[in-house]
Amino acid sequence: MIDLRSDTVTKPTKAMREAMYNAVVGDDVYGDDPSVNELEEYAAQLIGKEAALFVPSGTFGNQLALLTHCQRGDEVLLGDDCHIVQHEVGAASVIAGVQLRTLVSDKGVLDPEDICSKIREEELHYPRTGLICLENAHSIGRVIPLSNMASIKAIADEREVPVHMDGARLFNATTYLQVDVKEITQHCDTVMFCLSKGLCAPVGSILAGSQSFIDRARKNRKLMGGALRQAGVIAAAGLVALKDMRSCLKDDHDQALYMGKQLAELEGVTVFMEDIHINMVFFKIEKPVDYDALVTYFSNAGIAINGHEHGIMRFVTNHGITQADVDTAVTTLRNFLKEHFQ
Fold first, then answer.
1. Which residues belong to any copy of the Aromatic amino acid beta-eliminating lyase/threonine aldolase domain (predicted)?
2. SS3 (DSSP) at 289
């Protein structure tokens, strides 16, 4: 099966499976799992933060950040199209008890002046602005310019509001920008990034920040049910992901750009080429389509895809997807369009 639904479908590599089998483990709640400790230390050093914490998922890491940064009733400033708003089940209201104040996003880019104007003054009737959240790479497939992040961080520092970054695909962003990861993470106080997705680990994400923040987050992780025991079995795969798989992301990006160009040649298909920064291809079919039939058609051809979201389709390249697989997907869409519109 050619799976273009997401980069979350990647399977652990042979090296990961071997590392998992041979992992030295302990009890992470007691802090004596050497594989988890090594992963957290390596991750923190890699991205230029004082400390890091291994968590079960990206959503867990983001929500743990909100819970740790904020007091109940705080307001969080973030883009109206970001993952925390769109795809985390309203967890911020349930777990951290915060209010999300969404700002207009220009394909993931927030206006620093807009953020500045929305930070609350101290006043009896106002909630406290507890946090600003950014996302890079953005889940719409674009990478946010470092200049934009720097401007927002300067405002946040001046107004004494912390900045958290959802960096689920952080290393896709570094690959696109061709910079060291610290060039991105210097513009946030805390960051979450996934070890799964394009990096292929089976489970897990990292939340990183100052030592004092991570000390508080560790206790909140326990509160949220995320304190694991012999977690070194999966942390071992995370180490392989960080050490070996970051360099593979460019292949995914190249396949996505190739796919976008091929899809753009199909009559009746509009590809958002300017948005192909990482491994995601967004496109629109310019005629009325039975999307359930489209998904079934692809499935019968041995290709897994998701349906549309507000009329927009997304194909995601990931580890193991070849140019031949891309050609097969494009041919399948071409055949579907011919059968249904000619």
1. 3-284
2. coil
Cβ distance 166 to 91 under 8 Å? no
- Region(s) of the chain under CATH 3.40.640.10: 8-246
Closest listed residue to residue 283, CA positions, set 311, 303, 255, 317: 311
CATH 3.90.1150.10 domain position(s) in the chain: 248-341
Nearest to 54 by CA among 70, 71, 69, 34: 34
Name the CATH architecture for the domain at 8-246: 3-Layer(aba) Sandwich (3.40)
Is the model's pTM score more than 0.70? Answer: yes
The pLDDT of residue 291 is: 96
Q: Can you name the CATH fold of 248-341? A: Aspartate Aminotransferase, domain 1 (3.90.1150)
Return d(Cα 210, Cα 247) in angstroms, integer. Answer: 27
- How far CA 159 is from CA of 40, 60, 102, 188, in Å, comes to 30, 27, 19, 14
Tens of pLDDT, residues 135-192: 999 999 999 999 999 999 999 999 999 999 999 999 999 999 999 999 999 999 999 9
Residues in the chain where the model's pLDDT stays below 50: none
HEC readout, 110-137: CCHHHHHHHCCCCCCCCCCEEEEEEECC
